[in-house]
Amino acid sequence: MSVEKSSVAMVRMAVVGVGALGRHHARILSGLEGVQLVGVADPQPEQGQAVAAQHGVRWVPDYRELLEECDALSIVAPTFLHHRIALDCLARGKDLLVEKPLTADVGQAEQLVETAARHDRILQVGHIERFNPAFELLCDSMTSVPRYIRAERLSPFPFRSLDIGAVHDLMIHDIELVLHLAGALPVRVETTGLRLMGAHEDTVQARLVFPDGCIADITASRVNPEARRTLGVWTSTESLSADLQSRQVSILRPTTALTQGPAMEDRLRAGENVTELKARVFGEFIEQEQLQAASTDALTAELEEFVQSVRQRKQPRVSAEQGFQAVRVAEQVLQSLLHNCVNARLGQPWEARPAA
To answer: What is the pLDDT of residue 339?
Structure first.
C-alpha cells in the first residue's frame, strides 16, 4: 500500500538560544508536521551541542551561519539581544518568532515593527499566555466588556533573566493580556515597587486606567515563596476568575430571580428570614459555574500558529504591533517606578541607587 506524502509546505526553521526555554522550542519544532529544524545557535558549546545532538541537527555558535538554510527563526536569546538579532534577520528576509518581551526598549521595539512591515515579514511575539487554554476559555465565557481586571503573577527568584526586572520578566505577560481584554491603551498608569535582590525591580504593583473607565490592577513579584498566576475579570453581568496554572475557570452570574425579582432590602422588609436568604444566595440568586480548560500545551499551540502564519502569510494572534504596545505600557510602568520604587537593600528611592 502506498503512503501519500503530505502536501503541507515545508518551513525550514532554526532556534537562536537553547537555554531553559529555547530547548523546548527546538524540541517542539523538531516534531511539528511540515517543519524542518535545520539547526540551533547558542554561544555555549556544551548547551548548544547537547540540544543539537538530541534532535540530529547542526549546532553553530553564531545564528548568522544558519540564515542561508532557514526560512524562519525562533529567537529565545536574552532580551538585550532581541533587537540586534531580529533586526538583522528581518533585513535578510526571515520570518521571526521573538520571545517576550519584544525588546526592553520602546524605540527598538518600534523599529522592529517598522522593519517587519517594510520587508513584509511575519513577526510574532512570544506572549504564551494568550495560548493558555484557561485564558481562551475565560475570553469565550465573557458576555460583556470588562469593568475591572485583576492579575497576579508571583514566583520564586529565578536566578535567570537578570538583565531585566519583574516588569519585563513577569508583568509584561499580564500587561499584554489586559490590553487584549480592555481593547485599548491606558490613559493613566500608577505604580509602586521594590528593588531587593539586585539592580532591577523585583516586586511591582501597577494600576492601569482605560479610556472607558475600566481599571486593571496587576501584581508581579519574583521573590514569592511559591508560584501563582491568576486572572480575574468583572463585567456588568458576571465575574470570572482563572487559575492559569491549574487551568480552572470560575464564573459567577446573577440569576433572573435576583435581577428581575425583589431587591434584598425589599425581601427583608417583607419579613423573609435572613438565615434562609443567606443559604439561597449561591444557587437561587447567583449561579456558580466551574470549568476545566483543556490540557493543550500552550507553547506547542504558539509555535504551530507561527508556522501557519509563515505558511499562509497571515498575521499571528500576537503580532509585532501588539508586542510593541505591551512594551510601551511596560515602559510607562517603569517610568512611574522611578518615583515609587524603594531600594530595600539601601533604604533609598530607586532613582538614588549608586551607579554601577
So the answer is: 81
